[in-house]
Design goal:
six-stranded parallel beta sheet; flavoprotein; alpha/beta; seven-stranded mixed beta sheet; single chain
């Protein structure tokens, strides 16, 4: 078999799952994939590697490579490396990202660019998969085309060697990749990759023909609207291309625990975890506000946890206890929830390189693992739907096959991915599905800690750390009358309920303080969202809603610096803040007034998107970008003439994009250049680290 090196750099498990899929399909196509996490540098050596390289890379934060790739990236970015360091290397790269963020697929792009700078060459076009529209629209055709590219590579490098029959790829795929022109070696457009999907052969998939019973089909046709549980023609009558079933690899035993104490799982083996008490919790919004916003103060005085304003940190949170109990009940494992989970690799597994999941610790109870270790609300991948279908019957089985099929891609996007349908939703929707526990442990990803921005300065609040969040609420996709809360925000709201007080209450309630609840936190290593090193540089801050959090830390920090250096020169500080209603959700209203009166905050521009104009006054501006446009001359002057900095924090999907577009318009208008030139100017600001974003979806 022809060997290739397969590396993945993952943050939440997506890249790893895709790499494992490639590894398993490789065998079917007559290849042998040598699979490793990119962090396992002792198991591979690119300097001496002669086989082709395939890399799957995710993106984290606002455009960083994942934590597992940090050392690798640092190593290859060594400026002392010669330009031909990787001249012998031939590779293909698949980047994962989300186009709602400005630096789309930037984790992959960083590695891709640097490999080329060091002399490596593509043997296959780079793919950029977009989680915003569905990774599978790019991932599946990219994997389909990989086998033809590998075949071409081995054919060209070992021309006379006979090719095994298992390596023959359909002629359409061969024509697609032959020749592989240099100008095609960097595929940016999802459209191009979608075209590949149309022309590529459905290798490694099994055909499901004539799976629909005619009577069943007639009943479904009567339903004019598709849903999670049923389809309509043509899908309901189609022959399906469904993915090959992923091989089972875990053997699960449940043993009774003997009263052992269980502590919370750590985030990762390398991150320090701090158990800290909550010293204060304040509701910042009124009870009639659309969203409830809380400020929480942590006491870090007895730890060595340190931070700067603008940093973020992780909160280690559990799944909802009620959802865990419902899941145990649905799996008929309620009476064994306290039993210890013992995992082993199945002796007869066909999964290559099968290993025990690192995020499932040894000697823990089933309830602990479902509560602290597995993301039970994760949107199931198609591989999991395919596995669940094996344990369902009748219409349920057919529908699960549809949802994981090529033909059912639109329904998967609408009813699973976009609806944020989780495992429990699926098990409630498909009652005949009775999966074994091993299936869940094989397919559910690690429960990720949730990141939050620091909303304080240690100069202003020594030994304390503040953060702010909205209590996220949404309707269940399967039972729309049930209101759910966010995994972390819902838990935090419950944890602080005993000590929560309204914003107007300055001191704790009478009757003695309630015992301080504790939570676990860990630092985040990618600190980039910091104030300029030169305090004389002017700063523009854009942060509607809870996006104001890091800027409160900035302002507290600046206030203390100005007190310590009364003769110092400090640049102007602009804040563009926005909320729905002035009287309901104007966060940190009094604090901002205080900073403004003291001259710390030199310009405060606030917009209220839902407040109607009073009397005959003009309609107020609705959004932060509208206020920026009103002050376009000043914004342009700060950024282009005074070497100022602009920071944007908040929603990536709408606000950050609108602010970016407004900045392009401002630069174009105030400098008299075309939009393309204005975009280049903005790109330069990003490169100079003077346009910084801390955004989330």
């Amino acid at each position: 078999m022809r060997r290739f090196l397969l590396l993945y750099a993952t943050q939440q498990g997506q890249a790893k799952a895709i790499a494992e899929e490639i590894c398993e399909k490789a065998f079917v196509h007559g290849f042998s994939a040598d699979l490793h996490c990119i962090s396992e540098s002792d198991k591979y050596d690119l300097k001496t590697e002669t086989a082709p390289l395939v890399v799957v890379v995710s993106t984290t934060g606002t455009g960083d490579p994942p934590d597992t790739a940090r050392k690798f990236v640092k190593k290859i970015q060594d400026k002392a490396l010669p330009v031909d360091f990787f001249a012998h290397l031939r590779y293909g790269l698949l980047g994962l990202g989300d186009s709602e963020y400005t630096y789309f697929c930037n984790g992959g792009k960083i590695i891709d660019k640097r490999l080329q700078e060091l002399g490596a060459q593509h043997f296959y076009a780079t793919g950029h998969a977009d989680d915003c529209v569905g990774l599978e629209f790019v991932v599946e055709p990219w994997i389909d085309g990989l086998w033809a590219a590998l075949t071409k590579h081995f054919t060209s490098t070992r021309g006379k060697e006979e090719i095994n029959g298992a390596l023959q790829i359909a002629s359409t795929a061969s024509q697609r990749m032959d020749p592989v022109k240099p100008e095609l070696l960097h595929i940016e457009s999802r459209v191009e990759l979608l075209r590949l999907a149309d022309s590529g052969r459905r290798d490694s998939e099994v055909q499901e023909q004539n799976a629909v019973n005619r009577d069943q089909s007639s009943a479904l046709i009567a339903e004019s609207e598709p849903s999670l549980t049923h389809s309509v023609p043509p899908l309901s009558q189609a022959s399906l291309n469904i993915p090959a079933l992923a091989p089972e690899y875990l053997q699960v035993h449940l043993h009774e625990l003997l009263g052992q104490e269980e502590s919370r799982a750590s985030v990762t083996p390398v991150d320090p975890v701090f158990q800290v008490p909550i010293s204060k919790a304040v509701q910042l919004t009124t009870n009639d506000a659309i969203k409830t916003t809380l400020l929480v103060e942590l006491d870090i005085s007895k730890t060595d946890f340190s931070y700067q304003p603008g940093d973020a940190f992780n909160v280690i949170c559990p799944n909802s206890d009620s959802e865990v109990q419902h899941l145990l009940q649905r799996l008929q494992l309620t009476d064994r929830r306290e039993h210890c989970v013992v995992l082993k690799i199945k002796g007869d597994t066909k999964k290559k390189g099968a290993a025990l999941p690192q995020h499932i610790p040894e000697g823990r109870s089933l309830q602990f693992i479902l509560t602290w270790c597995l993301e039970i609300r994760a949107v199931p991948k198609k591989a999991m739907l395919r596995a669940l279908a094996e344990h369902a019957a009748g219409p349920d089985r057919r529908r699960l096959h549809e949802l994981c099929s090529r033909q059912g891609a639109a329904d998967y996007g609408r009813f699973v991915r976009d609806a944020h349908t989780g495992l429990l939703d699926l098990l409630l929707a498909f009652p005949s599905c009775q999966p074994p526990l091993a299936l869940l442990l094989e397919h559910l990803p690690k429960l990720q800690p949730r990141p939050y921005s620091c909303a304080s300065s240690n100069l202003s609040h020594p030994g304390k750390l503040h953060f702010v969040f909205n209590i996220v609420e949404f309707l269940s996709p399967t039972t729309m009358e049930v209101l759910r809360r966010g995994v972390c925000t819902g838990w935090l709201a419950t944890v602080v309920a005993s000590i929560l007080r309204p914003d107007t209450q300055v001191s704790p309630a009478e009757g003695g303080p309630a015992p301080a609840p504790e939570i676990s936190i860990s630092p985040r290593t990618t600190g980039f969202f910091h104030l300029p090193s030169d305090p004389a540089a002017p700063v523009i801050m854009v942060g509607p809603g809870t996006g104001i959090a890091p800027f409160i830390g900035f302002l507290q920090h600046r206030e203390k610096l100005q007190e310590q250096h009364p003769e110092g020169h400090f640049g102007a500080m602009w804040l563009f803040f926005g909320c729905r209603h002035k009287e309901r959700d104007y966060l940190f209203r009094e604090e901002l007034r205080h900073f403004y009166k003291r001259g710390i905050l030199t310009h405060l521009k606030v917009s209220f998107s839902r407040d109607a104009p009073v009397g005959e006054e003009e309609a107020p501006v609705k959004y932060v970008q509208d206020n920026m446009w009103l002050h376009s001359k000043q914004v342009a002057r700060v950024l282009l003439k005074e070497s100022g900095y602009i920071y944007v924090c908040g929603d990536a999907k709408n606000m950050a994009k609108d602010v970016n577009d407004t900045l392009v318009e401002i630069i174009s208008k105030e400098t008299g250049v075309e939009k393309l030139e204005a975009m280049k100017t903005l790109a330069t600001l990003k490169e100079e680290k003077r346009y910084l974003q801390d955004i989330w979806s």
